[in-house]
Design a protein that fits this description.
The chain is an all-alpha fold. Among the domains are: 83-88 and 106-268, Methane Monooxygenase Hydroxylase, Chain G, domain 1; 883-1022, no CATH class. The strands form two sheets. The protein has a two-stranded antiparallel ribbon. A two-stranded antiparallel ribbon has the order 2-3. Strand 2 (72-73) and strand 3 (76-77) form a beta hairpin. Helix 27 (619-647) runs antiparallel to helix 28 and helix 38 packs antiparallel against helix 39. The longest helix is centred in the N-terminal third of the chain and has 40 residues, at 184-223. The protein is flat, with a radius of gyration of 42 Å. One of its GO terms (cellular component) is nucleus. GO terms for molecular function: chromatin binding.
Length: 1228
C-alpha cells in the first residue's frame, strides 16, 4: 500500500489558516477510471508498498503545470476529470500555501490526541481566515471540490475498501478528534468533512438496503419453486450474499452511529453558527434520502430544537430542511407527531425579524396546509393572513400564496369542470371574488387594497384579471337565491378592481414595496400590453355605465374615475368608439355638477387632463367639452361673487354655498389645467380683500380663494418662463405676486386656523419659487420677479411656526374645541404640523430666511425629538453645509435663548442640578455630537462658538460689584460640552481669550458659585498644560500648579498697561478686507417670551461707540474675524506670553521654564481627541452624527482561540413530548 499523507492546508497568502484534510487511502486499488481492481478482504493491511515503486509526488513539488491547472505526473498527463486529482491539483494551485503533513508513521507511533495537539501547536492563528471562510470564486470552488471528493471517495470505495476496518476507522477517529478541537478552523473543516462523509455513507446504506430487498425477493422466488426446478447452489449463493450484505449494513450503521454520536450531537449546538448550520443542513439530507432510518422523532427533535436558534442562518437551514420533507406527501404520517409538537413555533417564525427566515416559514406553513387541511387551526391561518399587507414584498407574496391555497384553490375537479363552462358572475371566479371582498373587509385594513392585490398577483392572476366577472357583479342584478352585494361590498369591490387594473397596466408593485421600477423582460412587456388592451376594450364600454349607476356615491365615483388613466386611449379612435367617449364625458360632467368633494373634483380634473393629452386624436373633442364646462362654471362664479360682495354681511347661506361650491370646482380644475384666460385671480382677490377688511369671510371660501389665486400665479409664471416675456408681462406678474403675498401675510393674523395654515404654506411656497434661484440657469431676465422677504415677514413666519407647530398635546386638544380625537386624527394633525415645519425649514436651508431664525427651531430639538427630530436634524445638517460658522453661531444663539429664559424664570442664582439646566446641557451635548469626528473641518466653527459663548457669559457684569460672578457665568458649564471638539492648540487659544475677561480676583475664587468657570477652564486645559483646578474641592490639583497660577495670573483688565491695550485691541481690526457673513442677531419675536432678561438688558446695555476690544459689538462690526480669529489669537498669545515671561524673569526665575514650556507646546502637532470623551462617553449617542462623521470600527481581537469547553447539554431526548415549545431553556 502506498504511503499517503494527511495534509492540513494553511493559506499564508491571505494570512489565514485552513484545516482541510486529504484523506489517506490505498490509491493502488483504483485504476485511472476509478474502478476497483480487486476485491479486498476485511482486515488491516499488513504490507507496505514495494520499495521499487515510486511514490506519487506532491503537486506542489512539480515545476510544470498545464494551462488548466492540472499538474504533470512522472512526465505523463493525468486525467483531470477524476476528483481525486482535482482536489490534489486544487491544493497545489493555492499559491503560497503552507502544507503541514501528518505522515503515516505518525499514525503508527502517535495517538490521535497527540497528533491533534502537534497540529494545534504548529497552527498559526494570527488570522481568522481559512479556506472555508475565505471569500472568492477560488475558495468557493475549493469547498465544492473538497465536499465532492469525499462523496466520490466513498462511492468508489463502497464495495470493499470501506470495510477494511482501517481507512474508515482512521478517518472517523481523526475527524472526531478534530471536531472537538479548540481551533475553529479544525473544528469547522472536520465537521463539514464528517457531515459529508455521513451523507455518503447514507447513500451506501440506502444502496445496501435496496440490494438486500432485491436479494431477499430473489431468494424467496427461488425457494418457492418446485423441488425439481429449484437450484440449491443459487440459494446458497443468495444466502451468502444476503449475509454479506447484512454484515456490510451493520458495519455502515456502526460508522454512521460513530459519526452521529461522536460529532453531530456535539456540533449541532456549537458556538459557531456556520457549524450548526452545516449539521442541520446535512441531517435534512439524511432524512430525505433514507427516510426509513432517519425520519423519526429521534432525529427530528434536533431540527425542532434548533428552530429556536438565535442565528437566522441556522433557523433558515432548519426551515429549508423541513420543506424538503413536507414536499413529499407520502412522508406526512411520519411527520405527524413533529407537526403537532413544533407547529406553533413554525407559525410564530412567520413573524421572524429576518425576512428570509419569515418567507421560508410561510412557505413551510403553506406546505403543511397543502398536506393536511386539519393541521392548522383558524388562529394559525389568521396569523399568516395579515402578512399579505406587509411592506416587505417577498413576505407578502409568500403570504399571498398561503391565502390562495387556503381560500381560492378549488379541490373538486368535477365541480370545477362544470363551473368552467359558465361565464360572468356565475363563472368559477364569481364566488371567489365575493370571498376576496369579504376577506378584504374583515381584515379592517381598507386603505391597503393595493398591497392585498400585489400579494396575490403572482398566485391568483386568473382571478384578479377577471374584470368581466367584477363588472357583472357590479352592474347586473343578482339571480334568485344569490346574495346581494351590500354598499360596503360594492365599494370594496370597486377599490380592488381599480387596484388590479393599475397592477396590470403598470406591471410593478405599489409604492412602498420594492426599490423602484425594474426593467421588464420581453415576456413581461408583452403580457403588460395584452392586459392593457384587454382591460381597455372591456372597460371603455362598462365605465360610463358604472359611473351612471354610482354617480351619487362620492367614494365609488372617485375610484372609478381613476380607471381612464390606465386605458390605451388610441382605442377610442382606432376602434371607432367615440360614442363611448361622449358617454364618458357626459357622465363626468354630471359628476362635476353633483359633487363638491375635493377628492371627486380632483379625479374629474385629472381625467380631463389625461384625455386632453396632445398625443391623442381625441384631444379636440375633449377640449371642447372641457371649455364648455369651464365657461359655465366661470360665469356662475362671477355672478355669485357679485351677489356676495353686494350683500356683504347680509349674505345668506345660499349665497355662500353658491360661491363656495363653484370656487371648489374651479380650484380643482385650475390645479391641472391652465385657466388663466378666464382670469380667476381677480374675483378671488376681491373675496380675500373683503374678508380682510370686514373680517367675516367664511373660512372655506378664504382657503379656496387662496389656493385658486396661487394656481393662477403659477400658471402665469409657466407661461412667462416658457416664452419670451415682455417687460410689461414681468411687471404685471410682479404686481400680482406682490399683492398676493401681502394678502397672505395679512391672513397670518386671521382668527381661523385653516386660513392661517393655508396662507403660511402658500407664503413659503411662493417665497421658494420666486427666490434668487429663479434666475439660475441663464434666466437673468426674470430678475424683476425675485422677492426677498423683509425682517417683518420673516418674524411673522417664525412666530407662526412657534405658535402652531411647537405645541403640547393638551394645547392641541383645546384648539380642537374639546373634541376627542382618535388615533388617526392625532396622526393626521401631527402630519400637518410636520409639513408646516418642513416648509419653513426649506426657507432656511435655501438661504431665503436668515439663519438666525433657525435658533428658535434648533432649541426645540430635545423637547420635540419624537415628533420633529428628523426634520430639525436634517435642517441642521444642511445649514452646516451651507455655512459652518454661521451654523455654529446659530447653535450657540439657541442655547443662549434657553439660558436667558431660565434666568427669567429662576433668577440669577440658578440651581445647576435642576432638570432645566440639565436639559440645556443635554441639548448642547447633542449639538456637539453633530460636529462629527473631523476636527480640522469644524475647527473655525467650534472656535467661533466658544468665542460667542465666552462673550455671552461675561457681557453683563454683576450689578453688585466685580467681586460677584456675572449673571450669565453659569452658561460656561453649558459651553463645556463643546470643549472636546477643539484641537489641543485651539484649546489654549480659547483659554487665552477667556482670560481676557477674567480678573485676578476671578482666578483665585474657589467657591461653588464660581464652579462653572472652574469647570470650563479645566475642560480647556484637558490634554494641555498640567495646571487644572479641582471642581469638587475648589482647590488646585497640586500646590505647585496653584502657586504658578497665582504668580502668572493676569492683572485686572482696568489695570492693563496702555501698550497691552493697544496690541490686544488691534487684532480685532486686522484683515478688514475679507468678506464673510456678518454677525448673528437674535430675531425679534412678538408672540413668545423675550430671549434674555430685560432687566439685565436695560441696566447693562453696552455703548456701541465705546465698545471694548473683544466685546460683542466689536465682533459684530468686524466680519472678517470669523475666518482669522484663531490665527490672530495665536499671534497675540505668543506676544502676551513673551511679555508675561519678561515680567516673571524680573520677579521669579522659575517662570522662565514655564514660559519656554508654553512656547514649545504651541508648536506641537494637533492631537485629535476622541469624540467619546466629550461627555459621559455614551456610545448610543453616536447616531446623532450627520453624514460628515466617520464610522468607528474597533480593532478585532487577536486571540482567535476559542474555549475548549462545550456548552452544557440542555437537551433531553424525552423532551419531544413536553408541552413547552421552548423547553424552558436558553440555547446559547
Amino acid at each position: 500500500m502506498i504511503n499517503s499523507d494527511f495534509p492540513v492546508l494553511q493559506d499564508s497568502s491571505n494570512d489565514g489558516q485552513g484545516d482541510t484534510m486529504s484523506l489517506g487511502m490505498s490509491v493502488g486499488e483504483l485504476d485511472d477510471t476509478g474502478e476497483v481492481k480487486t476485491k479486498k478482504k476485511r482486515g488491516r493491511p499488513g504490507k507496505q508498498a514495494s520499495a521499487n515503486k515510486k511514490a506519487r509526488r506532491s503537486p506542489v513539488d512539480k515545476g510544470g503545470r498545464r494551462p488548466n491547472g492540472v499538474a504533470h505526473q512522472n512526465g505523463e498527463d493525468t486525467d483531470p476529470g477524476t476528483l481525486f486529482e482535482v482536489v490534489k491539483q486544487g491544493r497545489s494551485a493555492m499559491q503560497g500555501s503552507l502544507i503541514r503533513t501528518v505522515r503515516i508513521e505518525m499514525f503508527r507511533n502517535m495517538q490521535n490526541a497527540e497528533i491533534i495537539r502537534k497540529m494545534t501547536e504548529e497552527f498559526d492563528e494570527d488570522s481568522g481566515d481559512y479556506p472555508l471562510t475565505t471569500t472568492g470564486p477560488q475558495w468557493k470552488k475549493f469547498r465544492y471540490n473538497f465536499c465532492e471528493f469525499i462523496m466520490v471517495l466513498i462511492r468508489q470505495c463502497q464495495y470493499s475498501i470501506i470495510y477494511d476496518e482501517y481507512m474508515m476507522d482512521t478517518v472517523i477517529s481523526l475527524l472526531t478528534g478534530l471536531s472537538d478541537s479548540q481551533v475553529r478552523a479544525f473544528r469547522h473543516t472536520s465537521t463539514l468533512a464528517a457531515m459529508r462523509l455521513m451523507t455518503a455513507l447514507v447513500n451506501v446504506a440506502l444502496n445496501l438496503s435496496i440490494n438486500q430487498d432485491n436479494t431477499q425477493r430473489q431468494y424467496e422466488a427461488e425457494r418457492n419453486k418446485v423441488a425439481g426446478k429449484r437450484a440449491n447452489e443459487k440459494l446458497e449463493l443468495l444466502l451468502e450474499k444476503r449475509k454479506e450484505l447484512q454484515e456490510n449494513q451493520d458495519e455502515i450503521e456502526n460508522m454512521m452511529n460513530s459519526i452521529f454520536k461522536g460529532i453531530f450531537v456535539h456540533r449541532y449546538r456549537d458556538a459557531i453558527a456556520e457549524i450548526r448550520a452545516i449539521c442541520i443542513e446535512e441531517i435534512g439530507v439524511w432524512m430525505k434520502l433514507y427516510s426509513d432510518a432517519f425520519l423519526n422523532d429521534s432525529y427530528l427533535k434536533y431540527v425542532g430544537w434548533t428552530l429556536h436558534d438565535r442565528q437566522g442562518e441556522v433557523r433558515l437551514k432548519c426551515l429549508k430542511a423541513l420543506q424538503t420533507l413536507y414536499t413529499n406527501r407520502e412522508l406526512f404520517p411520519k411527520l405527524e407527531l413533529f407537526t403537532n409538537r413544533f407547529k406553533d413555533r413554525i407559525v410564530s417564525m412567520t413573524l421572524d425579524k429576518e425576512y428570509d427566515v419569515a418567507v421560508e416559514a410561510i412557505r413551510l406553513v403553506t406546505l403543511i396546509l397543502h398536506g393536511s387541511e386539519d393541521a392548522l387551526s383558524n388562529e394559525d391561518c389568521e396569523n399568516v393572513y395579515h402578512l399579505v399587507y406587509s411592506a416587505h414584498r417577498p413576505v407578502a407574496v409568500a403570504a399571498g400564496e398561503f391565502l390562495h391555497r387556503k381560500l381560492f384553490s378549488r379541490h373538486d375537479p368535477q365541480a370545477e369542470e362544470a363551473l368552467a363552462k359558465r361565464r360572468g358572475r356565475n363563472s368559477p371566479n364569481g364566488n371567489l371574488i365575493r370571498m376576496l371582498v369579504l376577506f378584504f373587509l374583515e381584515s379592517e385594513l381598507h386603505e391597503h387594497a393595493a398591497y392585498l392585490v400585489d400579494s396575490l398577483w403572482d398566485s391568483s392572476q386568473d382571478l384578479l384579471k377577471d374584470w368581466d366577472c367584477m363588472v357583472e357583479l357590479l352592474l347586473e342584478d343578482p339571480v334568485q337565491g344569490e346574495e346581494v352585494l351590500g354598499d360596503r361590498h360594492e365599494s370594496a369591490l370597486i377599490e380592488l378592481m381599480v387596484c388590479t387594473i393599475r397592477q396590470a397596466a403598470e406591471a410593478h408593485p405599489p409604492v412602498g414595496r420594492g426599490t423602484g421600477k425594474r426593467v421588464l423582460t420581453a415576456k413581461e412587456k408583452k403580457t403588460q400590453i395584452d392586459d392593457k388592451n384587454r382591460l381597455t376594450e372591456h372597460l371603455i364600454v362598462a365605465l360610463p355605465m358604472l359611473l351612471s349607476k354610482y354617480q351619487a356615491d362620492a367614494e365609488k365615483v372617485a375610484n372609478l374615475l381613476q380607471i381612464p388613466q390606465f386605458f390605451d386611449l388610441e382605442v377610442y379612435s382606432s376602434g371607432r368608439m367615440e360614442k363611448h367617449l361622449d358617454a364618458l364625458l357626459k357622465q363626468i360632467r354630471v359628476v362635476v355638477e353633483k359633487h363638491t368633494e375635493m377628492e371627486v373634483l380632483e379625479a374629474c380634473s385629472k381625467t380631463y387632463s389625461i384625455l386632453c393629452s396632445e398625443e391623442y386624436t381625441i384631444m379636440n373633442r375633449v377640449d371642447i367639452g372641457r371649455s364648455q364646462l369651464i365657461d359655465e362654471l366661470t360665469d356662475r362664479f362671477a355672478h355669485s361673487v357679485e351677489d356676495l360682495l353686494q350683500e356683504g354681511d347680509e349674505a345668506d347661506d345660499d349665497d355662500i354655498y353658491n360661491v363656495l361650491s363653484t370656487l371648489k370646482k374651479l380650484t380643482a380644475f385650475h390645479n391641472a389645467h391652465d385657466l388663466t384666460k378666464w382670469d380667476l385671480f381677480k374675483n378671488c382677490y376681491r373675496l380675500l380683500k373683503m374678508g380682510i377688511e370686514q373680517g367675516s369671510m367664511p373660512e372655506q371660501i378664504a382657503v379656496q380663494a387662496l389656493q385658486c389665486s396661487h394656481y393662477s400665479i403659477l400658471w402665469q409664471l409657466v407661461k412667462i418662463t416658457e416664452g419670451c416675456p415682455s417687460k410689461d408681462d414681468l411687471v404685471a406678474l410682479r404686481r400680482v405676486v406682490k399683492s398676493f403675498l401681502a394678502v397672505c401675510q395679512q391672513c397670518l393674523s386671521n382668527v381661523n386656523t385653516p386660513v392661517k395654515e393655508q396662507a403660511f404654506m402658500l407664503l413659503c411656497d411662493l417665497l421658494m419659487i420666486f427666490s434668487h434661484q429663479l434666475v439660475s440657469g441663464g434666466r437673468d431676465g426674470l430678475e424683476p420677479l425675485v422677492f426677498n422677504p423683509d425682517g417683518t415677514l420673516q418674524n411673522e413666519l417664525l412666530n407662526f411656526v412657534l405658535d402652531h407647530v411647537f405645541i403640547d398635546q393638551d394645547d392641541e386638544n383645546q384648539s380642537m374645541e374639546g373634541d376627542e380625537e382618535d388615533e388617526a386624527n392625532k396622526i393626521e394633525a401631527l402630519h400637518k404640523r410636520r409639513n408646516l415645519l418642513a416648509a419653513f425649514c426649506k426657507l432656511i436651508i435655501y438661504d431665503i430666511v436668515d439663519m438666525p431664525s433657525a435658533a428658535d427651531i434648533f432649541r426645540q430639538y430635545m423637547k420635540y425629538y419624537n415628533d420633529y427630530g428628523d426634520i430639525i436634524k436634517e435642517t441642521l445638517s444642511k445649514a452646516r453645509q451651507m455655512d459652518k460658522i454661521q451654523c455654529a453661531k446659530t447653535l450657540i444663539l439657541s442655547l443662549q435663548q434657553l439660558f436667558n429664559e431660565l434666568i427669567q424664570d429662576q433668577g440669577p442664582n440658578l440651581d445647576r442640578t435642576s432638570s432645566h439646566v440639565s436639559g440645556i446641557k443635554e441639548l448642547a451635548r447633542r449639538f456637539a455630537l453633530t460636529f462629527g469626528l473631523d476636527q480640522i473641518k469644524t475647527r473655525e466653527a467650534v472656535a467661533t462658538l466658544h468665542k460667542d459663548g465666552i462673550e455671552f457669559a461675561f457681557k453683563v457684569p454683576n450689578p453688585k460689584g466685580p467681586e460677584y460672578p456675572p449673571p450669565n457665568l453659569a452658561f460656561l458649564e453649558v459651553l463645556c460640552e463643546f470643549s472636546s471638539k477643539l484641537l489641543r492648540q485651539d484649546k489654549k487659544t480659547v483659554h487665552s481669550y477667556l482670560e481676557k475677561f477674567m480678573t485676578e480676583y476671578m482666578m483665585e475664587r474657589r467657591e461653588d458659585i464660581w464652579l462653572p468657570l472652574i469647570a470650563y477652564r479645566n475642560s480647556l486645559l484637558t490634554g494641555g498644560d498640567d495646571d487644572r483646578l479641582s471642581v469638587t474641592t475648589g482647590a488646585s490639583s497640586t500646590s505647585k500648579s496653584s502657586t504658578v497660577r497665582s504668580k502668572r495670573g493676569r492683572p485686572p483688565q482696568q489695570k492693563r498697561r496702555p501698550d497691552e491695550e493697544s496690541i490686544e485691541g488691534s487684532w480685532m481690526m486686522r484683515n478688514d478686507t475679507l468678506q464673510t457673513p456678518g454677525a448673528l442677531h437674535t430675531p425679534q419675536l412678538t408672540s413668545t417670551v423675550l430671549r434674555e432678561n430685560p432687566r439685565q438688558a436695560a441696566d447693562h446695555m453696552p455703548d456701541q461707540d465705546s465698545s471694548e476690544p473683544g466685546s460683542e459689538p466689536d465682533y459684530m462690526h468686524n466680519p472678517q474675524m470669523q475666518m482669522s480669529w484663531l490665527d490672530q489669537q495665536k499671534m497675540e498669545e505668543v506676544n502676551r506670553k513673551e511679555r508675561v515671561g519678561m515680567n516673571y524673569m524680573k520677579s521669579r526665575s522659575g517662570g522662565v521654564r514655564q514660559q519656554v514650556r508654553g512656547l514649545m507646546e504651541d508648536d506641537a502637532e494637533p492631537i485629535f481627541e476622541d469624540v467619546m470623551m466629550s461627555s459621559r462617553g455614551q456610545l448610543e449617542d453616536m447616531n446623532e452624527e450627520f453624514e460628515d462623521t466617520m464610522v468607528i470600527d474597533l480593532p478585532a481581537s487577536r486571540n482567535r482561540r476559542e474555549r475548549a469547553e462545550l456548552r452544557p447539554d440542555f437537551f433531553d431526548s424525552t423532551a419531544i413530548m413536553e408541552d413547552d415549545p421552548g423547553f424552558g431553556m436558553q440555547m446559547f
